[in-house]
Amino acid sequence: MNAIRNAQNLLLTAQPAAVVVVRVVVVVGNAP
Length: 32
Description:
It holds the Pfam family IlvB_leader. This is IlvB operon leader peptide IvbL. 91% of the residues lie in helices and 0% in strands. By secondary structure, the protein is mainly alpha-helical. The longest helix is centred in the middle third of the chain and has 29 residues, at 2-30.
């Protein structure tokens, strides 16, 4: 049960981080 809870917490914290990473990649990709 604790492992499942930890996995869920990791997913919840990883989602916003993934969005930030995607935005940075897009900005860097658009930069000359």
